[in-house]
Amino acid sequence: MNPTRDLEGRRALVMGGSRGIGRSIALAFARAGAAVAICARGAETLEATRAEIAAAGNAPTFAAPCDLSDAASIAGFVPKAAEALGGIDILVNNASGFGRADDEESWAASLSVDVMAVIRASHAALPWLERSGAGAIVNIASISALRATKRNPPYAAAKAAVIQYTSSQARTLAARGIRANAVSPGSIEFPGGTWERRRTDDPALYNGTLSQIPFGRMGRPEEVAEAVLFLASARASWITGQSLVVDGGQLLGP
């Protein structure tokens, strides 16, 4: 890829940006000229990713641990990131609690991270997004939100809530000059991720999922990042309230 400098001078905050899709989004922003701040729980991985981001671009970077299930942690991180970058123009809500089982623990994990972290980070970043004059929010949902599932009901329901909330954000925030969109990835494989583990731990599930994708492969985090980059950029200046599916045709079936 030959990344453009679409985001030169812009300041992007990626919540849950140390690995996988979040890492690829942060790197894509840096290569496009943006200053980038990231957060996650694991300090060691977080700093390694921050160093990658710094090497990928020439704008300021910032990283700090943040527990996205905790309201106080989010409220503390966002102003620090804004100070380090000189403001916030773009907010990406990427983190997930990955609630799988239909039980209290999984529902609590999905609701606290997939839903409430989106709401809390958006509220915390709002003063800077409004001052930006062209603020953009991109929420990471999932194609799991778009169909019934037996495997991960809490995750799917939480991501459906994210899509609905995104449309409400778009309607509410337009008057403040802020756009809000969502990206719904399909099955994305990366080192240390769920699908890499499934390849060896549950080959039947892995191969069954693979058979649903017309292109015959899992998606890559970089492919999701390109969609986020577009929606956050001025090229998407008249797009708001939308959910863009990035799944290689997975929802189309075999």
UniProtKB/TrEMBL annotation:
CDD domains: SDR_c (cd05233). SUPFAM superfamilies: NAD(P)-binding Rossmann-fold domains. PROSITE patterns: ADH_SHORT. One of its GO terms (biological process) is fatty acid elongation. It holds the Pfam family adh_short_C2. GO terms for molecular function: oxidoreductase activity, acting on the CH-OH group of donors, NAD or NADP as acceptor. Belongs to the short-chain dehydrogenases/reductases (SDR) family. This is SDR family oxidoreductase.
